[in-house]
């Protein structure tokens, strides 16, 4: 799970006429199936939740090996063309922070109840996906999904932590990919350093929080994918034209705007995008 920087969250929401609100917590049940309770359990490896702060996230992905040609950008609105125009295009990935509400959980469980656990591996996968087994690491999972898919994958520097992680992960089934993340000290160190320098006081690594990151990416064949380590696997939401990116009207309608519509006025949303650097 995750928490957004409150002032950045406020920018996104007030641009759509909605004020920000405080982070809330929730209790979780245990000993359930991955459909009803997909979260890492108490006692699992835990990371400090990552703030939805584009500078912090940019520093983190650069430290892990993403080229300086890419950076994370604030997304101030999902509906206002003028505000969306501030972001360099094409946008390669969108990370949405959203509330894990009763409405969302009902939707997720209904959709996952008819889906088998994802088992694919290898170069033939349209996207690479990681199951989240580290508590409060969904911000990191979102960033991994963002930079490891589509054109962004070609901008990972040879010999870097991410380059090594990807090369090892591609031929592994999901469970082993997750173990690899848990057993990569450089990943944990970089995340810990990033999470400690946000604009707001971070929750504890063991806290239960009810905000979560999901990533949307466009694959090399035009598919728009929802990538979330709490789900049973990657979810294809549709297809885009060559000139449409993850911030196009069609991509937003197939993905993130459905989250906002489902919540019916819940105030806790934030978004950042992966795109070209402004420097």
UniProtKB/TrEMBL annotation:
<feature type="region of interest" description="Disordered">
    <location>
        <begin position="17"/>
        <end position="41"/>
    </location>
</feature>
<dbReference type="InterPro" id="IPR036959">
    <property type="entry name" value="Peptidase_C12_UCH_sf"/>
</dbReference>
<keyword id="KW-0645">Protease</keyword>
<dbReference type="GO" id="GO:0006511">
    <property type="term" value="P:ubiquitin-dependent protein catabolic process"/>
</dbReference>
<comment type="similarity">
    <text>Belongs to the peptidase C12 family.</text>
</comment>
<dbReference type="GO" id="GO:0004843">
    <property type="term" value="F:cysteine-type deubiquitinase activity"/>
</dbReference>
<dbReference type="InterPro" id="IPR057254">
    <property type="entry name" value="UCH_AS"/>
</dbReference>
<dbReference type="Pfam" id="PF01088">
    <property type="entry name" value="Peptidase_C12"/>
</dbReference>
<feature type="domain" description="UCH catalytic">
    <location>
        <begin position="46"/>
        <end position="276"/>
    </location>
</feature>
<dbReference type="GO" id="GO:0005737">
    <property type="term" value="C:cytoplasm"/>
</dbReference>
<keyword id="KW-0833">Ubl conjugation pathway</keyword>
<feature type="active site" description="Nucleophile">
    <location>
        <position position="138"/>
    </location>
</feature>
<feature type="site" description="Transition state stabilizer">
    <location>
        <position position="132"/>
    </location>
</feature>
<keyword id="KW-0378">Hydrolase</keyword>
<dbReference type="GO" id="GO:0016579">
    <property type="term" value="P:protein deubiquitination"/>
</dbReference>
<feature type="site" description="Important for enzyme activity">
    <location>
        <position position="228"/>
    </location>
</feature>
<keyword id="KW-0788">Thiol protease</keyword>
<feature type="active site" description="Proton donor">
    <location>
        <position position="212"/>
    </location>
</feature>
<dbReference type="InterPro" id="IPR001578">
    <property type="entry name" value="Peptidase_C12_UCH"/>
</dbReference>
<protein>
    <recommendedName>
        <fullName>Ubiquitin carboxyl-terminal hydrolase</fullName>
        <ecNumber>3.4.19.12</ecNumber>
    </recommendedName>
</protein>
<dbReference type="InterPro" id="IPR038765">
    <property type="entry name" value="Papain-like_cys_pep_sf"/>
</dbReference>
């Amino acid at each position: 799970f995750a928490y957004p920087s409150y002032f950045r969250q406020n920018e996104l929401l007030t641009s759509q006429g909605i004020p920000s609100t405080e982070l809330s917590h929730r209790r979780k049940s245990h000993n359930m199936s991955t459909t009803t309770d997909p979260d890492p359990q108490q006692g699992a490896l835990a990371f400090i939740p990552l703030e939805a702060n584009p500078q912090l996230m940019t520093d983190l992905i650069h430290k892990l090996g993403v080229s300086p040609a890419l950076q994370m950008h604030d997304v101030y609105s999902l509906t206002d063309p003028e505000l969306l125009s501030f972001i360099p295009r094409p946008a390669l990935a969108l990370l949405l922070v959203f509330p894990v509400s009763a409405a969302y959980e009902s939707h997720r469980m209904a959709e996952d109840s008819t889906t088998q656990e994802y088992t694919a591996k290898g170069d033939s996968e349209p996207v690479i996906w990681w199951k989240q087994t580290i508590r409060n690491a969904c911000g990191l999972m979102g960033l991994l999904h963002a930079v490891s898919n589509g054109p962004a994958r070609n901008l990972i520097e040879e010999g870097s932590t991410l380059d090594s992680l990807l090369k090892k992960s591609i031929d592994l089934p999901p469970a082993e990919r997750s173990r690899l993340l848990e057993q990569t000290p450089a990943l944990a160190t970089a995340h810990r350093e990033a999470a400690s320098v946000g604009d707001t006081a971070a929750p504890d690594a063991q806290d239960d929080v009810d905000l979560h990151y999901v990533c949307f990416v466009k694959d090399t064949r035009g598919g728009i994918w929802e990538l979330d380590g709490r789900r049973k696997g990657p979810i294809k939401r549709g297809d885009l034209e060559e000139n449409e990116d993850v911030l196009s009207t069609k991509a937003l309608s197939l993905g993130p705007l459905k989250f906002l519509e489902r919540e019916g006025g819940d105030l806790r949303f934030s978004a950042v995008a992966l795109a070209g650097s402004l420097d």
